[in-house]
Amino acid sequence: MGYFKKFPTISYQGIDVQDILTAVLPSRLNVDKSYVFQDYTVPDGESAEGVAERMYRNSSLYWTLFVANSMVNPYIDWPMSSEILEDFTDKKYGDRFGVHHFWNNEIDRIVDDYDEFDFRAMDVEDLPFYIIPVTNLAYEIELNNAKRSIVVVNPRYVDQFVELYTDAVQGKA
User: Fold this and answer.
1) Taking 90 as the threshold, does the pLDDT of residue 96 lie above it?
2) pTM, entire model
3) How far is it, in rounded angstroms, from Cα 38 to Cα 152?
């Protein structure tokens, strides 16, 4: 994985290993975000490697997307495809169509715990018209869609960004 090759090595039990605890966030790179980063919406099923290939014609620069968006765990932080999200929801909740919470359309917010207890005891058709049950899948889709809006390093500046990042990881910046 090219991302970790930039990290310094440390000795661990007599073996030289990559120091994966090294972290350099974009804020520490001292870059002008107004022209270096640009907004991007990740299409359904697009991998970080696919975005990097599309933006930079180099899939190995996928790691710049994680750095630019302060993503720590690509399996959780990167938007999932619809198919993977459905499987994830089934494993997380056991029932993708179970009610995650209730939404009150009159006050435009999630129903509080006290009222939710009463609504869970009711049949869906008996709920007041302004109370909307939100399924586990609908909730996870909403969270996942929010992850689709990311920033990417402007292709004109990606080489400079890589250089700055490499220097920062190696303690030169």
Assistant:
1) yes
2) 0.74
3) 5
pLDDT exceeds cutoff 50 at 79: yes
Q: Which long-range contacts (CB under 8 A, 24 or more apart) does 81-88 make?
A: 81/44, 81/45, 82/44, 82/45, 83/45, 85/137, 85/140, 85/141, 85/144, 86/137, 88/140
Burial class (CB in 10 A: 0-12, 13-18, 19+), 141: middle
Section 15-39 average pLDDT: 61
What pLDDT score was predicted for residue 1? 47
Task: Single out the residue of 172, 133, 166, 152 nearest to residue 48, CA to CA.
Answer: 152
Alpha-carbon distance of 9 to 17, in angstroms, equals: 5
* Residue whose C-alpha is closest to residue 151's, from 74, 82, 10, 51: 51
